[in-house]
């Protein structure tokens, strides 16, 4: 995954300092971040191809409180969806990240099929 940003240094600092993501310098100050386990979903569309980034958490209220203590401002109230509780925050560079607590079975901890 690559996030294209109008202020890459600010977004890197946010991921490193606010979200606490471990990282390595890939050269020239370009940081590569370790992320928690991830999932990918593919949804149909008749419009333009878009991609969204959703961070998952176990407890949305607790996670939001922890992030607020680090200065994060949420730009959407928590909404209850059939698949989970959802909110969003803006990155310093202008991008948006969604944060959600899944209410569905998750795939990130499924064993790999090595057959």
From TrEMBL:
Pfam families: Glyoxalase. Residues 1-102 form the VOC domain. InterPro entries: Glyas_Bleomycin-R_OHBP_Dase, Glyas_Fos-R_dOase_dom, VOC_core. SUPFAM superfamilies: Glyoxalase/Bleomycin resistance protein/Dihydroxybiphenyl dioxygenase. It comes from the Bacteria. This is VOC domain-containing protein. It comes from Nonomuraea antimicrobica.
């Amino acid at each position: 995954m690559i996030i294209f940003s109008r202020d890459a240094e600010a977004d890197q600092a946010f991921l490193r300092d606010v979200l606490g993501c471990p990282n390595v310098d890939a050269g020239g100050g370009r940081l590569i971040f370790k992320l928690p386990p991830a999932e990918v979903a593919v949804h149909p569309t008749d419009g333009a191809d878009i991609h969204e980034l959703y961070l998952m958490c176990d407890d949305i209220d607790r996670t939001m409180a922890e992030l607020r203590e680090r200065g994060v401002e949420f730009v959407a109230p928590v909404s209850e969806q059939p698949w989970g509780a959802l909110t969003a925050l803006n990155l310093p560079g202008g991008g948006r990240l969604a944060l959600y607590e899944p209410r569905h079975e998750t795939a990130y901890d499924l064993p790999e099929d090595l057959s």
